What we know:
Fumarase C, Chain A, domain 2, three-stranded antiparallel beta sheet, 19 helices, Histidine ammonia-lyase, histidine metabolism, Fumarase/histidase_N
Amino acid sequence: MDMHTVVLGTSGTTAADVIAVAxxxxxxxxxxxxxxxxxxxxxxxxxxxxxxxxxxxxxxGFGALASRHISQDLRxxxxxxxxxxxxxxxxxxxxxxxxxxxMFLRLKTVASGHTGVRPHVAQTMADLLNAGITxxxxxxxxxxxxxxxAPLSHCALALMGEGDAAGPDGVVRPAGELLAAHGIVPVxxxxxxxxxxxxxxxxxxxxxxxxxxxxxxLYTSADITAALSLEALLGTDKxxxxxxxAIRPHxxxxxxxxxxxxxxxxxxxxxxxxxxxxxxQDAYSVRCAxxxxxxxxxxxxxxxxxxxxxxxxxxxxxxxxxxxxxxxNGNFHGAPVAYVLDFLAIAAADLGSICxxxxxxxxxxxxxxxxxxxxxxxxxxxxxxxxAQYTQAALVSEMKRLAAPASVDSIPSSAMQExxxxxxxxxxxxxxxxxxxxxxxxAVELYAATRGIELREGLxxxxxxxxxxxxxxxxxxxxxxxxxxxxPDLAAADAFVRAGRLVEAVEPVTxxxx
Length: 514
């Protein structure tokens, strides 16, 4: 089997599969197991549709309109109408990777055989993904309850050959034209199918999974920059000793301390050059780096546990059970996902804050233990990295505002039928901004710390630090010297961190980092 193909069965999928489809354009196939389960659940729905008794989502209206029984001649129209009316998003277009994750995760639930969707519809969903067709989804429209309704509706609309979508070239065109160009026949929805395509936590879950992957890389990167800052400040690595962290056995704390210790191995700067201003201990932003980053690591681990549970779930309402029942439920409520999205934003904001404090210490001649003011070449004539720290501080400030939880808010909707909602989509959207900011903040600390190390003339940095400095300079981030146009350097440092190259530069020396 091609390594770039993801096969969906009935038992969920993995975070790695989601990322492969969303970011790396992996192909999607339905297993025979999934096709069989889809057909079996559809037989149950067809049997119920033929009966005179009303069944929610099959032969009734939706939400607050569920009390109306819908006759058979209007049911196809009912399913089309729910998609059209719920595709009510507004604002900027959501990123391609988010929409692909959203589509794939909805297909994952459909393939579970608990939704009553026909195999043909599921296959068409896979066809859209494989053709690189990405429906236009808007920033606003989901309350994170009854699922990500508006975003999923825009995807279902494209499946019907309506609305707008972007092709593989990124150009937005009418969805019908794109489907025709790729030989895909639009689906004609039948009983329950419109509802089944809309009713899930797929958008917020997709963003959670990608956020976890990004944050894992960033936390390792921040351990590296913390070690570089400690080295530039002539700090002590004794606080990173394993036995000190073993007596407070938070797993993430031990991992971060070990990462820092390995980066600093063989340093000629740490703990030996404090005679000019003796220090009993380093400042909190240096000494407590493993405790703060470690707490964030443990938060990520918990968020991954929630994501994995959600990946194993079939989120729909009503749901088709193996014994033939079709039951209403509340599994579409986004609270479990929303909480961890908010929790991650809090942890990331605190990591950004401690990174900024170390940067500020590197630039302050009263606290940097012999480094020039603002790491400038000729302080007074040159301003050095003064304003780079301003930029970093602005990013941290925004992260603190974004750390206010979305999940504590709720605005009732659907004539009070949906009277408590999760706001999980909003939590996910602000977390993506938070992660962008954190990447830039880590990049600024990297820029300052590497310059600080280079300014310690006559002292030999750790081999891992030397590898970082070599790699970052080759990436176009210049070293110490007179003032120059700073934005390109910061952009290059950002790209370096964002692509994972900081970790790649270190690991040949340190071995794999946590």
